[in-house]
Design a protein that fits this description.
single chain, alpha/beta, Zincin-like, 2 domains, three-stranded mixed beta sheet, 45% helix
C-alpha cells in the first residue's frame, strides 16, 4: 500500500484486493485507475501529493466509483471535496503550470482557405483587442469543439474543420473572437466555476455577425462532418 489516503479510500469503497499508486509527471491534473491481475493500479499526477488529504481520498473514491459503476455513500463527502477542488482556481493555476512545464509542442497551421493570421488581425483591429500569442488550426478536424484558448501557452487553436472553402470567413472570425474573449476575460469562481459569465456573454454579443454565425454553424456543421467522413 502506497499511502494512507488510498488505504482509507479502499476501505470506504469496500475493495478487498490490493491497490498501488504511481505518481507521474503529467501536463495536467490527470489520474487513472486500472485493474491488473488481482489488484488495482492508480497513476496520478504528482501534484496531487501536495493537496489536502480529503482531496486525495475523494480522488481515489471517485475513480473507484467510475470503475465499479456505482456510488458509495461513505465516499460522497470526499468525492464532493475532490470535485470542488478540480473546479477551483487553484487547480486551474496548477494545470496551467503543468502545461507550461510538461506540455507538448504543436504544429502551427495557418490554413489553406482561411488564413488565421489575417483574420485574427482583422478581428483584433475591429474590436480593439490586443493579443500577442499564437494562433493555429488543430491537427485533426473537430466538429464539436470549434476552438479553444490555451492559457498556458497563450495560444488559440481553431478546429481544422473550419478551414474549408464553404465556411464563410465571418464564421471563423466569430470563433476567433470567442477565443480572444477567453484570453482577456477571467473565469469567475462563485458557487461553481463559470467560464461563460454574464460579462463574457455581453462581450460576445458585440460581434457584428454573431447571429449569422450561430445560424450558419447550427445549419451547416453536420453537412461539413458528413462530407469529411463520406465525401459528399
Amino acid at each position: 500500500m502506497d499511502s494512507i489516503e488510498l488505504e482509507i479510500a479502499r476501505e470506504i469503497c469496500h475493495v478487498p484486493d490490493s491497490c498501488s499508486v504511481d505518481f507521474k509527471d503529467y501536463s495536467s491534473l490527470r489520474a487513472t485507475l486500472k485493474k491488473r491481475g488481482g489488484g488495482y493500479y492508480f497513476t496520478v499526477a504528482k501534484e496531487f501529493k501536495n493537496t489536502d488529504i480529503s482531496v486525495q481520498i475523494g480522488l481515489y473514491c471517485h475513480l473507484f466509483e467510475k470503475l465499479f459503476g456505482k456510488k458509495f455513500s461513505e465516499a460522497d463527502s470526499y468525492v464532493k471535496v475532490y470535485k470542488k477542488f478540480i473546479k477551483s482556481q487553484k487547480a486551474e493555476l496548477i494545470t496551467d503550470h503543468l502545461a507550461r512545464l510538461n506540455g507538448r509542442d504543436v504544429l502551427i497551421d495557418k490554413g489553406k482557405f482561411h488564413n488565421l493570421d489575417r483574420l485574427l488581425n482583422q478581428v483584433c483591429t475591429a474590436y480593439s483587442i490586443s493579443f500577442n500569442g499564437l494562433v493555429s488550426y488543430s491537427k485533426e478536424k473537430s466538429f464539436r469543439r470549434l476552438g479553444f484558448y490555451d492559457s498556458a501557452r497563450n495560444r488559440i487553436v481553431i478546429s481544422k474543420s473550419l478551414d474549408d472553402e464553404r465556411v464563410p470567413p465571418y464564421v471563423v472570425e466569430f470563433v476567433l473572437y470567442h477565443e480572444l474573449l477567453h484570453s482577456i476575460i477571467d473565469v469567475e469562481f462563485k458557487a461553481k466555476r463559470i467560464v461563460h459569465s454574464k460579462r463574457f456573454k455581453e462581450a460576445e454579443d458585440k460581434f457584428k455577425y454573431k447571429k449569422e454565425s450561430d445560424e450558419w454553424i447550427n445549419r451547416n456543421l453536420s453537412k461539413l462532418k458528413r462530407r469529411s467522413l463520406f465525401g459528399f
